[in-house]
């Protein structure tokens, strides 16, 4: 695939070329050229790390708007459980779901319901002996893309299951196209998202041709409007709400608790995840059954498109989970304990194609020559990884030079060396005279 959709974009006028983002990007996708941060599209995984770390707020995420609902006959909101953590627990989940209806949606379908089914599927898959260990969670789209781009050899370790939001969208489409007696294409299915990677996942899905999700609207975008309507919401309808098991997916560790995995690792923060995947690729973690990997600190509650401080959000989420647990206990109910794959129409997702970062050349011999060239250039660079050349480190600059995207003098140290050599050459030249002039001088001296 040559054309990529990316939710993360640069607001050029705000960028000062300070290099902060180049240092944090897990796939070395950013170069400063002409004083501005340029994103290399084939490398970007839309993790949003650059949005978090830009001191000038020059990186942004493009998502859909509430106004886009006008294009569809019926609109369904798919709220990520993280949405509930943005508001005080004085507002019940029911109130928040009703609040979404007030904003213009016709129906709501909780992503947490999809998460509950996926938890059971993860459990079943892990019981199947043939699954490669350690199996890696498919839930975070930024991590799935990180594997696709930086660790293509680990693609087979990703569980062949859809993410909860994709499953929730599929179920919502089936349910409401029947209820309203309209074609599924006339439904707008909108994910209320905590992160840009999920926007990208619905516009350009991996492992399927088309997503069941129409678009994604950032939590931060609707937060203000929702906060205004919540105190006036009149709760009437009773929604088939997900249990604490499903909503717990918003917090790191929630997925593996829901799937009751004991021999597990929970890793969050995209750069931590990247370092851990290096270990998996080296075969150091084959004794682990399952790795829950999340790009954002603390899980989805730390997503760049959320509003609330992640520590506050985590506490609220846990309070909400406890409340639901208590309610279930009083009512003598249990969370979902079984699912019927065929009834739900669940298919395995298709294979994910690798998108290797370092394709130096289609021709293997030329690529090998370039590897040698990169090593040679790297030896001549100072190895300080200062980033003032606009590449994230010396190795990346060496690759850029070998690929013709940069020159040696982009390195300030090499530039200084070059200027010093030129200055020395100039000094040497000033001492030299053209031969006719030298003779004249000699003659003059004799006189
Ligand atoms: S962090 Fe990146 S996008 Fe932000 S001002 Fe610095 S170079 Fe520009
Ligand atoms: S979104 Fe992530 S991968 Fe893309 S440029 Fe920003 S930090 Fe790099």
Explain the overall architecture.
The chain has three domains: 8-61, Alpha-Beta Plaits; 66-234 and 246-344, no CATH class; 364-431, Electron transport complex subunit B, putative Fe-S cluster (3-methyladenine DNA Glycosylase II, Chain A, domain 3). Helix content is 42%, strand content 10%. The protein contains 17 helices and eleven strands. The strands form four sheets. Strands 6-5-8-9 form a four-stranded parallel sheet. A three-stranded parallel sheet has the order 7-11-10, covered by helices on one side. Helix 4 packs across helix 6 (164-180) and helix 5 (141-150) packs across helix 11 (270-281). The longest helix has 22 residues, at 310-331. The structure holds iron/sulfur cluster (2 copies).
Question: What small molecules accompany the polymer chains?
Answer: iron/sulfur cluster
- Report, as a whole number of angstroms, the end-to-end distance: 81 Å
Query: Which percent band covers the strand fraction?
Result: 5-15%
The secondary structure category is alpha/beta
Based on Cα principal axes, name the global outline: elongated
Task: List low-pLDDT spans.
Answer: none
Total helices: the number is 17
Described by strand count, sense and barrel closure, the largest sheet is: 4 strands, parallel
Strands ordered across the widest β-sheet: 6-5-8-9
Number of strands: 11
Helix content class: 40-55%
Mean pLDDT: 91
Return the domain count.
3
Radius of gyration: 28 Å
| Strand and helix order | EHEEHEEHEHEHHEHEHHHEHEHHHHHH
